[in-house]
Design goal:
The protein has 208 residues and is α+β, with helices and mostly antiparallel strands. Helices cover 42% and strands 21% of the residues. Strands 3-4-5-6 form a four-stranded mixed beta sheet. The chain has a two-stranded antiparallel sheet with strand order 1-2. Helix 2 crosses helix 3 and helix 3 packs across helix 8. The longest helix is centred in the N-terminal third of the chain and has 13 residues. It starts with 7 loop residues before the first helix and ends with a helix.
């Protein structure tokens, strides 16, 4: 049997839940003397692998370490390039209207912005909604005026583990991350990894 490799804090969380279930994340954080934000990625991993069960307005329960032991290493060994998808890209001079149409037709939550093939920003549905509600002229305003700019963009590389990128998504509360590589002093987008990609991976492993 392949056993999931848990870190020391995750093992401590399991013991706390076993002894005090049901228990909330606030209570777990208090007992470990850390913040809820610090525990977010650990709790997400423990619930995604089935070791803990989370029930809204109730708390966490211990489900058992054996439920998904066999898929632990499958997930751990997966790299970003194994599951990344094609990113939707716009140029920083594209109008707000053009980007809204692009997002609608592509059915995505984020669009990555480039300047001369170099990653320079990202916009989400929330960013576009704020701009339109604020009365911006959609045909005249360039998307570069409202985008989140580098270096404030969380990125991933093709050889990173899916687990590490999942932690980034949870910790930063974002839907997707651009996969980049440095070529000729430019940060080029070669893919994206999202909550959907990661969910599909879990389903594929479980189905297999």
């Amino acid at each position: 049997m392949i056993v999931i490799q848990l870190n020391q804090r995750q093992q401590k969380i399991i013991e706390i839940v076993k002894e005090n279930e049901p228990i909330t994340s606030e209570q777990i954080a208090f007992m470990l003397s850390v913040t809820r934000a610090t525990l977010r990625s650990d709790l997400a991993i423990l619930t995604m692998t089935g070791i803990l069960d989370a029930r809204p307005k109730v708390g966490y329960f211990y489900s058992g370490v054996n439920k998904l032991n066999l898929i632990g290493n499958d997930i751990k060994n997966k790299k970003v390039e194994d599951i990344m998808s094609i990113p939707v890209i716009a140029k920083k001079d594209d109008s707000l209207y053009e980007v809204i149409v692009n997002m609608f037709l592509s059915d995505v939550g984020s669009i990555f912005i480039i300047d001369d093939e170099n990653l320079c920003g990202v916009v989400s549905r929330k960013d576009l909604l704020k701009a339109t509600i604020g009365g911006a002229d959609m045909n005249k305003m360039p998307i570069g005026m409202i985008m989140t700019r580098t270096p404030n963009i969380i990125t991933a590389e093709k050889d990173e583990s899916v687990v590490e990128v999942a932690k980034k998504i949870i910790e930063h509360e974002i839907d997707s991350i651009p996969v980049v590589e440095n070529v000729d002093d430019k940060t080029k987008i070669v893919g994206k990894i999202s909550k959907t990609n990661i969910t599909k991976l879990f389903l594929e492993i479980v189905d297999d």
